[in-house]
Amino acid sequence: MTDTHLLPFNIPGQFILCKKRELIHSSWNIHESNRWLLGVDPGLPVLKINLPDNSFAGWIVGFPIAHDTRLLDSTVTITEDKLKAKTFLNYGGRYICIILKKSQRLYLDPGGTLPVVYSKKRKIAASSLCLFPEEKDDHLHALVRSSGMPFIHDGWYPFGLTPRKSISRLLPNHYLDLDAWNSIRHWPTQNSLSTTQSTRESIRKITGLVKNTIQATAKKYPLTMSLTAGRDSRLMLACSKDILEKITFFTLFKKKTEVDCHIAKLIGERFNLHHQLIQIQKPTESQIQHFLHITGHSVSIPKCEVNASLKHLGNDHIMFTGMAAPVGKAKYSKRWDRNDEIVNAAQIINRLAIPFKTDDFLDAITPKADQWLAGLSGFKTKHIMDLLHIEQRNGCWGAPQTIGDADISLSNIWPCNHRKIYSLIMNLPLEYCKQKKMHVDIINNEWPELLELPLNSYVGLKKLYLINKIVSKSIRLAKQIRW
Fold this sequence. Notes:
The structure is a single chain. The radius of gyration is 23 Å and the shape is globular. Helix 3 (199-218) packs antiparallel against helix 11 and helix 4 runs parallel beside helix 13 (437-446). The chain has a domain at 4-185: 4-Layer Sandwich (Glutamine Phosphoribosylpyrophosphate, subunit 1, domain 1), CATH 3.60.20.10. By secondary structure, it is an alpha+beta fold. Strands 4, 5, 6, 7, 8, 9, 13 and 14 form an eight-stranded mixed sheet that branches. Strands 2-3-1-11-10-12 form a six-stranded antiparallel sheet, with no helix packed on it. The chain has helices at 80-84, 142-147, 199-218, 231-238, 259-270, 285-294, 302-309, 345-352, 359-374, 381-404, 419-426, 430-434, 437-446, 460-482, and strands at residues 15-18, 29-33, 36-40, 46-50, 56-66, 70-71, 76-77, 92-99, 105-108, 117-119, 124-126, 168-169, 174-177, 182-185, 223-226, 247-253, 275-279, 318-320, 411-413.
């Protein structure tokens, strides 16, 4: 066993829930209740949940945002009925809820953006594998060794798997039973996804919730936000129109000729944004090892380049990313999907397009995929595919990366991460989502001038140059084929 006091890396922005004090980092704050010990890095807020009689019910860890543009920063009082109805999951932001009244449970925020991994054997839940004692008989999964993960591009572990056999990842929309140490789905129900709202009304509500998260956070913290040529960052920019003076925008690039660099620069100049173009830096070996360690070897190295490049921004701000917004594009749905068809494990594994598919990998994840699908029996195909995005792509790929962001921000918050937003998106028409109209409609409603610059495309001489380059290459290839 390895005492976490002796870990060679600083581990900001993390937490552990356990019953052994020696597992908690010596510099962390400790909260106690009912033999439970919650160890938390001092930079991560902890709020008490009390019942109306002032009795203790649990903790909220992180940055919960209420519907009235308020980032919660004090004790939350809630009735037993509302506790039972899980109204504490109606917040935006990034957080977990630990309920220790009657049934003992740990809940993620709707997108699982403050990640949780847990060991049934050791009865420990924490934000990263690096906080667990090492064990000789708990080596990396065979799929790690055979695939080269995490060194390949864009690799991750879906369906609750992690690099260690005895440790599982808690998926979004599931809670961890702290008595039995089992993961149980609590959302969605069939009724929770029934709606008669118009698309226009849904877009209005989604927009309001995104703006609520951005404005609430801006009241307390300085903000940074990525700016690219794409739809996700343009949507966030449109929803930030009223607080631009509080945001530092940045665009990462390898070459200044990239479309992100070209369009973001034009947006920054035209609308007088506080905007930085930042060239991507190659991380040092020490930075790579640090990133892999604090993220528990759960995501691939390329994200480390981003962190190395943004180091100079400091970590006293909240970073906004558009990670949850792509759910509105129905990425994993196909236009030919029928809502009544039977979805199988091979189908969803194929659609996730994880870049390694060795026999070991398939042997490990296929039973897990079957188990995940069993919990969604009777749901429409689009709903299943949207949940695939929320729970597997975002929960198992996006969320673990945020642990690595603790070196470059106080926290990474996704403005589109909200239970109501996900519910509204999942009920949008498939064709509407495939045409990516949600993003365009929100931008057009909030700041239509942003659409005068193209999405993911060059303008002016740059566009003519690119067209000429493509045509010239096509002519050269045609001549080669002719010969």
